[in-house]
Amino acid sequence: MKFGIQINEGPYTHEASDTAYHFIKAALDNGHEIFRIFFYHDGVHNGTRLTAPPQDDRNIVNRWTELAEKHDLDLVVCVAAAQRRGIADADEAKRNGKDTDNIAPGFRISGLGQLIEAGIQSDRLLVFGD
Amino acid sequence: MATLHTVNKSPTDRNTLEACLRLAKGGSSVLMIEDGVYGALKGTQKSGIVEDAMKDIKFYVLGGDLKARGIEENKLIDGVNVVDYAGFVNLATENDRVQSWL
Questions:
Q1: How many domains does one find in chain A?
Q2: Does residue A78 have an active-site annotation?
Q3: Fewest CB within 10 A of the end CB: N or C in chain A?
Q4: Predicted ipTM > 0.90
Q5: Cα angle vertex A89, ends A68, A40, to 5°?
């Protein structure tokens, strides 16, 4: 079965990023497909490569990057939510006159159409957030 | 067409469990996750709403989230089923859609 996932909450806030991660891992382990993970609202903070959590804590951002690499996942950050919150790839940084980008490897910035498409193409869409 | 409802907040914090149970149709399932697991405790002010809904709605709770809060299974309302993440995935596939109450 194909799952679409929407994450509305930042990392280290409550538990949405963790719950979503464990759900996705269990789905993949049981032979299901993850069509796309769409990071929306404060969820876009999952996609900054500049986080530096303590070494004895989980690294939520790196964990997404590693999972995406291993399973060829599509991690999409909502562009409008990202602009408001200071998440940028090289193109966005240039377009907005910023001196650097901060998007983590494995993530890409795109529009809300990607969420709609995930809703249409997936058998189930699950939302994790606050 | 059955729906899996997920509830992630304690019923003493938000009214999402109550709102969910007000609208959930018979034959649907409710999975309590994160702080939502407090809704599965017996003997609380809010236990009644779950007990009343049980005749036509199935209730599940995420075991890891119970454990994280030090809640033992014998503290749960009778009839609430404990599942792991694989069980969560199965519930999502067995139902026709998933509604997250946030």
A1: 1
A2: yes
A3: N
A4: yes
A5: 65
Instruction: Phi first, then psi: give them for residue B81, nearest 5 degrees.
Output: -95, 135
Copy the structure tokens of residue B76: 């749960």
Encode burial over A66-76: b for 16+ CB neighbours within 10 A, e otherwise: ebbeeeebbbb
| Domain, as residue range, for A66 | 2-128
pLDDT in tens, B3-42: 999 999 999 999 999 999 999 999 999 999 999 999 999 9
- Chain B hits for A27, CB-CB cut-off 8 Å, are 89, 92
Question: Residue A98 is encoded by which pair of tokens?
Answer: 């910023």
Candidates A7, A34, A37, A78; catalytic one: A78
Instruction: Determine the pLDDT at residue B23.
Output: 97
Pairing of strands B3-7, A124-128: unpaired
Residues of chain A contacting B64 with CB distance shorter than 8 Å: 22
Please indicate, yes or no, whether the overall pTM of this predicted structure exceeds 0.80. Answer: yes
* Cβ(B3)–Cβ(B98) below 8 Å: yes
